[in-house]
Amino acid sequence: MKSILHYVFPLLVLAFFSCTPEENPAGDNGFDVRLDIPAEIIVEADASSIEFAVLEGKAPKQSDMMILEGLAGQKFCKILSVTTSSVKAELYDGLKAGQHKISIQRGLEVKYLGSTKISLKELADDELVRPGAGSTIYGKVQCNGKGIEGVVVSDGIEVSVTDKNGVYQLASKKKYGYVFVSVPSGYNVPTDTSLPQFYKYTEKSASAPERHDFELTTSRDQTAFNLLVFGDIHLARRHNDLAQFPRFADDINKYISEHQSEVFYAVTLGDMVHDQFWIPNNFGFLEYKEELKRLNGLPVFQTIGNHDHSIAYNTEEGAVIEYRENLGPNYFSFNIGNVHLVCLDNIACITTANVGSFNTHKYEVKLGTEQMEWLKKDLSYVSKDKVVFAFMHSVWHNNPGTKSYSSGFNMDDGEELHALLNAYKEAHVFSAHSHLMWNVKDENTYEHNAGAVCAAWWVSGYLSPGIHIAKDGAPGGYHVVKVNGKDVTWQYKGVDLPITTQFRTYDRNMIDLSPETQVPNATQKHKDEYIASAQYWLTPGVENEVYINVWNADYDWNVEVKENGFALKVERLKCTDPLYLHTALAKRQNSNTSSDGAHNYHMYKVVASSPNSTLDITVTDRFGNVYTEQMKRPRPFSIEEYRTY
């Protein structure tokens, strides 16, 4: 029961009859205790104790035990205090209304005192939900008017949990101006467009108590659910992005409609907008929220990225103001089924500065002391057998390159975060920022650098319509993470591609990416930049090499290639992607259109015996899913050959 006591003196409650001495069993069983046992006692619903008047000064000892026997069986209740006139005993948890026999036990002896009917009185809402001592934010978390116990609530610094009536108390200084609920498993919150409303903004001064309630609804069974993960959307009203984004939204809606019986949620990984273009291109958070309407109400939880920080401020606290005003807390948690999910802010802005020709933020990659302490408090309510998902914008580990394991941390406090997450059965971190794809296993943790919705800032689709490709050759798209109980699987889905498409093949004999064919009229600066990125492909191939870009591969994937039934040797290598070079890098007009081609470690190579043989390619992912292609050669290398729309 709660430590705040609400009890009723027998003299103040409705007492119809008292037991007479004749109703008690004969004898005093070696000790003499007499209490006034009313015929009925009315107890407030959140009462922690019950009190009886002592008759003739014959009180029990405080070392005695009171026994209440009713519908819940025999319950032993500790005696809290004894005077010559009254005795107070602790009520048992889950008190049930109804007739109860009252006895006192001393050692091995028991004395029956009488019987009473205990009735429960429900408290009025204004009696139940009121600020506790030192509380400045309080309220009720409920579903259909009934409070929900055990829900975690926070202001971004302090963390509390609701009591059995769904009431929470926070001794908050209101530093960030909001309070949020960590949505419990089995429940949903309302959405505004596709934004879950799990937070409320505070309204009063730091010391003034204020009430904020949260109304939840029950969800469909969450034992199995789908989580769609969106990296780097980068809407900025440039590169024809607002014409391309509907294709992404249509792809999402189509995929969900094909799996109508399943449960779906989504999380972004930051850089939904692009700070440098908020004002000149008139595209910011308000416009982004309008675009989210295309997702037909899909709940999308948001993670902040470096380009979601306002360049109007030179400090981290100032730079997140506009984000918080439009999208809510920049770090928080929620729960779905057996998974605890945390969206984190690992961008710590230092100042604004000119980077290239853009005015943007300088920043450190870290959570910082305050957020890390909040995370420790939040995770203290999560049992270690749970699966934990964490979402952040900038990468956590360094790219492992040719290794399958960690090669150190990109975050200043990455090791401290690892210690927290590694204590759980399984933890997955989803990051973005690089616009690349790679995976790294680190003990119980797994990081997915998860690619980008915009691919390379929507450039290839702008310069080469029909091709939507990132710097490493991965298609623009999103992760589909499937959870069944505590089992987690994942696949990457390219926009306008079936989920069964997990790689792309290139016939090296057909590729000519020489500067003379790709950038004949470019400035010398552009030509030099192109050559630096495309050097692997600058001369036509004649060695019958075939390249296979398996964009989401990790070191538990397997690639097999057969030519006329004979297996070819498969080599994994560091390489740039020729299609990106051809459709984006070669066609850019200035250094701000896109970045250079990036080396990736998910390219595979085989050498065939002839230029016109057919290859049977089989790729098997870590979960046993098999993807195949029969590659008829020579395969042309052109936009028409590879376009998806």
How large is the radius of gyration? Answer: 33 Å
Q: What number is the mean pLDDT?
A: 91
Low-confidence runs of at least 5 consecutive residues: 1-28
By DSSP (H or I, 4+ residues per run), the number of helices equals: 12
What's the total number of strands?
A: 41
Which class of secondary structure composition applies to the elements? alpha+beta
Main pleated sheet: 8 strands, mixed
Task: Give, in spatial order, the strands making up the sheet with the most strands.
Answer: 1-3-6-5-4-7-8-2
Write the layout of secondary structure elements.
Elements: E1 35-36, E2 40-44, E3 49-54, E4 65-70, E5 73-82, E6 86-90, E7 98-106, E8 109-121, H1 125-128, E9 137-143, E10 146-147, E11 152-154, E12 159-161, E13 167-170, E14 178-181, E15 187-188, E16 191-192, E17 195-196, E18 199-201, E19 210-211, E20 214-218, E21 224-230, H2 241-257, E22 264-268, H3 285-292, E23 300-301, H4 316-319, H5 321-327, E24 332-336, E25 339-343, E26 347-355, E27 358-365, H6 369-379, E28 387-391, H7 414-421, E29 426-431, E30 437-442, E31 445-450, H8 459-463, E32 477-484, E33 487-494, E34 504-507, H9 515-518, H10 524-534, E35 545-549, E36 558-563, E37 566-567, E38 571-575, H11 578-585, E39 600-607, E40 615-620, E41 626-631, H12 639-642
Parallel strand pairs: 2-8, 9-19, 9-20, 21-22, 22-23, 25-28, 28-29, 29-31
Antiparallel strand pairs: 1-3, 3-6, 4-5, 4-7, 5-6, 7-8, 9-10, 9-13, 11-12, 11-14, 14-18, 15-20, 16-17, 21-32, 24-25, 26-27, 30-31, 32-33, 34-35, 35-39, 36-37, 36-40, 38-39, 40-41
